[in-house]
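Sample entry was shown:

___
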Amino acid sequence: MSITDGLHRELGKIIFCGCNDWKQVGRTKQIDENLTPNTYTPSLISTVKDVEFSFVASGASAAHCTAIDKDGHLWSWGRNENGQLAQGDKHTRNAPQIVKGIPEETRIVCVSNGKGHTVAIDSDGKMYASGNNKQGQLGLGSIKRSNQKGVEDERVEFVKSTAVPPTVKFVYVTCGSDFTVCLDEDGKLWSFGNPQYGQLGHGDDHEYNMKEGTVKLAYEAQPTPKMIQSGDLQGKKILKVSAGQNHVCCFDEDGKIYSWGNGGYGRLGHRVQKDEFMPKHVEIQGGDRNKIPADAILACGSTSTYISATGGQLYAFGKLKANGDNTMYPMPQMDLQGWILRDFAAGAVTFATCAQKSAVTWGAGGYGELGYGPNGKKSSACPDLVPDLEGKTTIMVAAGLGQTLFLVKSEDVKDMPVYEPLPETKDEQPKRNPAENLKGGAKKKTKTAKK
């Protein structure tokens, strides 16, 4: 993977569905749709319906979204309690806006979202970050400490990291809940942030006792990016990496899989629920005959991992459904057998993928993020087609706490409904009729969400 790969992606328009109450999404299913109606039908966003994008992002812990337009400008919207939108303040944004703190001539090629932070990579391989830095997840080399109660280290505009050695050039970034992993042009991984479950991959969790005479454990944050050189990753050239809430998975040029971090629910694929502080090889059915191709999809969710192997066969491990047993090692997902998947995203409780001229979603849902429409099912235990995206080319997908983004080929969105975001406000959202949510032929929803 080269840095310039991000400059030559296929372009499309953003299609959105899910929750618009950015302050409450992921915290309650009881959204007041008289104030902030969910978008049940996949729709264009009116304010950027004429803008072409090359990249969309959210995250399993994220209640905010980011996107890169065709000129390499970064846009953000959603929850902003820690300044993660890089808009210069902490006000929620209901519609995409260009971020602050990045020079006009700089072109962003990759971005990822954590719970309260955002990290981006530019075409020169430099890293920018905004939001919460309490755990050092911005990779700035230090954490601002304050004696004032409740005050945390936060950056409300993008800051360029100077803690990375000047010779290092990053090509990709992926954010966990409160940590970050970057891939450099030589195939090496760098990590920083919260080490609690070993997700930084350096061999320990930095645990210490805060108070003498009693047990009060804490974990020393790592604010400086450090190359991962431990465990089974030594000497390996990594091609792709993905971070879940508190775990990481990657694969190398030899087609081998590695994972580390929180081992709960079997999300590491090692057959035991044990945290791993160093990268460990994941055994897959077929052994050396079943290698991971260079163009494989890879996505880590909150408690699961998905990866494609030889022939495009999708494998998964971890807690894959709200109800059911844990999958402790890579198991083939027969529902998508025969599909050559273009992209894959794992949100908090939902999943999205795309292939050919179809988009597929499944999971617990609850806010309309599965895109089945106002009269469609609210959740799905098995992968199912998104009706309004049938026959359209979905280039990329992204999923978060209660929202799904589809990047769809520009020529395929002409007949799609248009969603009108609520007006920007620093205080309480104005009341509005949910029937005004959609324009352009979509079915209107007037009932409030089921509690």
Summary: The first strand starts at residue 12 and ends at 18. Residues 428-451 have pLDDT under 50 and may be disordered. The CA atoms of residues 218 and 377 lie 43 Å apart. Residues 228-346 form one domain.
